């Protein structure tokens, strides 16, 4: 009332009070100094309602990207599993186990997105019931852990795939180092996220300023995790490109495989966009509304990463059914010692598989030379290849 008494507006002139910027600033300052957070939110809600402020709601973005992205990723995952049963040379491995764990957690992430919107995530925080704010932050806390494990297991799945198809020893060492770094990243930041506050419950109750305890610098923690995550993505994308460029393949197949493995570039771009939204999210006092971009970019990154990890299996499946489109054999005249072994033999009794294999061979200059060839060209070789 002190602010109104000093303004040109009468206490009953709602239109004047709502449009007087100096009065609004004075009331805001008074509320910030003398009111609790709960009182401040209640005051803001009454003020906005009285003045007829528009009700903002973008919860559909949270549920849309969460549920929609999860549905697309799940379909692609099932196609991957279908490919494993359909393509004759395909086998199940640790990459399939890793991506299954990632997909299961991706479903959890999608379900939590729907629960978030049900509790008001996507709306201004002063319009949300207090117990719903606590519930939103609790779900967000769980989401942090789920996100870290999911993106990490997706990386592990891709690295396990590399181990299956690239047998060169030096490259396998690089893959194992990258895998160890990914697992270390996952364990470290799961622990940091889970123990970000003492007591732990402060992670979802601190918002009202009425609970004792302390929390880490969550903003710095988020930037550190995102920075390492992007670095690992870049390393995983770049690692196989040199080997692919030297493979004894038709240019068409090299291009197809390079595109297939480089889809991860999009995931890295999404990670960078998510990092940009983290800054806005961290400094906001209206996290339920301002945090929406950070939420849906996290969802996009998570689900696109799963789709990326499934690309090799999809490539094998498409090549199985559309060999004319996804064909392109080895380049003639570039085979190494022993590479013609079985290259002119007939097809197996199961029929020709369009899957891609690695034929383990040696030459006089290298201990191990592993050209990527069509399965049709190695059917007569006694040393079995590895399917994508």
TrEMBL record:
Residues 333-353 are annotated as: Disordered. Pfam families: CFEM, Fung_rhodopsin. This is CFEM domain-containing protein. Keywords: Disulfide bond, Glycoprotein, GPI-anchor, Heme, Iron, Lipoprotein, Membrane, Metal-binding, Secreted, Signal, Transmembrane, Transmembrane helix. Residues 1-75 form the CFEM domain. Disulfide bonds join 9-16, 18-51. PROSITE patterns: CFEM. Heme binds at residue 13. GO terms for cellular component: extracellular region; side of membrane. InterPro entries: Extracellular_membr_CFEM_dom, Rhodopsin_dom_fungi, SAT4-like. Belongs to the SAT4 family. Belongs to the RBT5 family. It is a lipid-anchor; GPI-anchor; Multi-pass membrane protein. It is found in: Membrane; Secreted. The chain crosses the membrane at residues 62-82, 94-116, 175-195, 223-243, 255-275, 295-318. GO terms for molecular function: metal ion binding. It comes from Knufia peltigerae.
């Amino acid at each position: 009332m002190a602010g109104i008494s000093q303004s040109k507006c009468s206490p009953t002139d709602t239109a004047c009070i709502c449009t007087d910027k100096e009065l609004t600033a004075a009331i805001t300052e008074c509320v910030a100094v003398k009111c609790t957070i709960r009182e401040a939110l209640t005051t803001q809600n009454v003020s906005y309602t009285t003045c007829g402020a528009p009700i903002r709601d973008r919860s559909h973005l949270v549920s849309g990207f969460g549920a929609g992205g999860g549905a697309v990723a799940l379909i692609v995952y099932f196609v991957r599993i279908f490919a494993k049963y359909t393509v004759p040379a395909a086998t199940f491995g640790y990459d399939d186990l890793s991506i299954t764990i990632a997909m299961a957690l991706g479903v959890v992430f999608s379900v939590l997105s729907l629960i978030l919107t049900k509790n008001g995530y996507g709306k201004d925080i002063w319009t949300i019931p207090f117990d719903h704010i606590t519930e939103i932050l609790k779900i967000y806390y769980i989401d942090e852990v789920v996100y870290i494990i999911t993106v990490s297991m997706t990386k592990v799945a891709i690295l396990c795939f590399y181990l299956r198809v690239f047998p060169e020893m030096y490259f396998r060492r690089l893959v194992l180092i990258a895998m160890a770094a990914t697992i270390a990243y996952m364990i470290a930041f799961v622990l940091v996220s889970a123990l970000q506050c003492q007591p732990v419950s402060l992670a979802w109750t601190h918002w009202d300023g009425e609970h004792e305890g302390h929390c880490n610098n969550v903003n710095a923690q988020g930037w550190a995790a995102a920075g390492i995550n992007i670095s690992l993505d870049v390393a995983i994308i770049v690692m196989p490109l040199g080997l692919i460029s030297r493979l004894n393949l038709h240019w068409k197949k090299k291009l197809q495989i390079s595109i297939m493995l480089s889809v991860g570039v999009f995931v890295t771009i999404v990670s960078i966009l998510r990092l940009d939204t983290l800054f806005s999210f961290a400094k906001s006092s209206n996290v339920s509304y301002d945090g929406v971009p950070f939420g849906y970019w996290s969802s996009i990154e998570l689900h696109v990463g799963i789709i990326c990890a499934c690309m090799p299996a999809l490539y094998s499946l498409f090549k199985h059914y559309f060999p004319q489109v996804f064909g392109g054999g080895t380049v003639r005249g570039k085979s190494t010692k022993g590479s013609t072994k079985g290259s002119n033999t007939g097809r197996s009794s199961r029929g020709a598989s369009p899957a891609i294999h690695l034929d383990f061979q040696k030459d006089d200059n290298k201990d191990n030379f592993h050209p990527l060839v069509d399965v049709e060209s190695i059917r007569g070789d006694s040393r079995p290849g590895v399917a994508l």
